Structure formats: structure tokens, C-alpha cells
């Protein structure tokens, strides 16, 4: 897509800035520029109240159809909102998984009853969701999942047993969508993508245990989640039973959208922090660091151009496939650049609010090339699916 400013879009951009300036203040001021759960000082309860403030202002469900309570805004204005949201210091969205991943999947595969039950709470910022995909033996190789789901012969409920890992925000969520296996025979016969179901499961029940995982940053963003006879209503599966893989892949495809431009706006904020520090501490006088700063800036502009291209509905697979690989490498390199600009200070435990975020950037970005499909897996997928090479 091409971003072309018009009077309508300029007015919309100004509207976003004005609303954010008025509302991201007062009691919400501590959330400004907080990247999300796992970031120091990020208050999850306050972040949930912020989600509800956004909902009251009409800033949730921007791309949803009006029949579901959304605004059905054109893609260009969705991009504008996500970019301006971050530029104004908007915090990481604790409702992101529900609003941008699950909701479109509900619209595509959910029953009328499921849509009526779950979409209003997601839109209002009152219901929060976690993603139950990865397992200890099935991360990038998601088809290797072993979590099992079976029907209770008496109640008709689904009964779930197994374990999920790296489950972001499960400790702050009421619900989790769980990819589980219903047909072990099919998996054993080689049909690894068959015999699955995507279930909607309440977290706060006796059969679910959530254990936060302490990260290298000292905080906890994600968790282990154990299912030991956990139950959910027999009607709470998305799509046909046995076709869960197709539904799960549709959901992952929803990650490629206007919100990726918001991610890159946050990258810009981080890069600007590094450039400002380089000017203050003299690192900008080093010709090699200057070259790396310039390269980072050019790389970010390239990522934005690619993201805009990928937002097009008719984007070829080969174009969309490189996104995760490209931005994760760029962001990891940015973390290393931050430490090099910090110099000797980077080796110390810093309390300076102007410097510590750059240390945190380096620590957090180490995981970028691992989660959501490791770089090695991404390269294989690009070779097989985008370039047509044999497995």
C-alpha cells in the first residue's frame, strides 16, 4: 500500500495526537513509553484501565467491521493510528492478542454465539487473552504439539491435558486459546497437521496452573501453563474439530497487519534514544559508530517500506515471509549498537532512567530471533514455500 497524506488523513493524524495528549496523562502518565508486560514499571492493572480508556475513546477495533462494533477504518488510517500512538508514548497493548489475533479469527471461524459472547469484551478492553501454542518439545516445530483434548462422555465438555510454554501474558489473562491434539493415530501415521482443535479455555480454574518464567531482565512476561484435566464447554472450539491447524495458521496470519507499523514506530523511539546518547557522550565522534547509526536508520526505513508493502491484501507469500526474519535481525543488531554506544557504562547495573532502557533493549532483543519461529526455521520456510525448494 502507498501512504499518501490527504486532508482527511492529516486531520485524522491530528485527532490521534490530540486525544493521546489529553488522555495519556495524569494517572496514566507512568505508562508513557512503557513497552509492555515484562518492562520495568509496567503496571498491568493500570494498563488494563488504559485499554478501557482507549475503548471509550473509540480506539479499539479500528479495522473491525461495524457489525462487530468496530470502526471499519481504511488501512491507511489504521497505520496512522498505530504510528502516532507510539510516537505519543502509548504503552504496549495488553489487549493486543485478543484484539488483533483472536478477534479476526473469531470473525472468520467463530459461531454466532461465540462472536456474541467474546467480541464485546475484547472490544471494551475488559477480557484478556493468552496464546497457547508452543510446548517444550514443539516451539518452531508447532506441529509437534502433544497437549491432548478429549470429550467427556457425560458432560460433553473438552478435557485438556498437557503443557504450554513461553505463554505471553497468561498470568494477566482470563482466557487462553489452546491448540491441542485430538487424533494421536493421525499424527503417528505421519499426518502431523491433522487431528487438531483450537479451543477457547478459561484460565482461572482448578485444572490450569500458570507459572511465570523469570527472564534475563529480572521480570516476567511469559509463563509455563499446565493443563491437568482442565475443562471448557464442548462448543468452544473454533472451526471444525480436526481442522485446528488451519485455524491456528489463519490466526498467525493476522500478525501481519497495520499494528506492525506501530512496532516499528517503537523501534524508531529506541533508535532516537541511542542517537541522542551518542551525541551526549561523544560516541557520535567515532566514525564506525556513526556508520552503524546511519545503517540502522536506513534499515528501519527499509523495514517500514516492506511493512507497508506487506499490508496489501494481495501481497505474495515471498514478500510477507521475510518480515519476521528481517526485523528480528535488525532489532537484535540495534541492541548491540545500544551497548556499544553506552560503552563502559553498559557493563554496570544502571539506575539512570535515561540509560537503563538501552540495557534492557539489549537483553530483550536477544530473544527476537528465537521466538515466533527461530531464524533457522524462518529460512527453511522461505526456501520451501516462497522459493519452491524441496524439503
From TrEMBL:
Name of the protein this chain belongs to: Acyl-CoA dehydrogenase family protein
Family: Belongs to the acyl-CoA dehydrogenase family.
Entries under InterPro entries matching the protein: Acyl-CoA_Oxase/DH_mid-dom, Acyl-CoA_Oxase/DH_mid-dom_sf, AcylCo_DH-like_C, AcylCo_DH/oxidase_C, AcylCoA_DH/ox_N, AcylCoA_DH/ox_N_sf, AcylCoA_DH/oxidase_NM_dom_sf, Mycobact_Acyl-CoA_DH
Domain Acyl-CoA oxidase/dehydrogenase middle: 130-228
Keyword field: FAD, Flavoprotein, Oxidoreductase
Acyl-CoA dehydrogenase/oxidase N-terminal domain mapped to chain residues: 9-125
Organism of derivation: Comamonas guangdongensis
Keyword Oxidoreductase attributed: yes
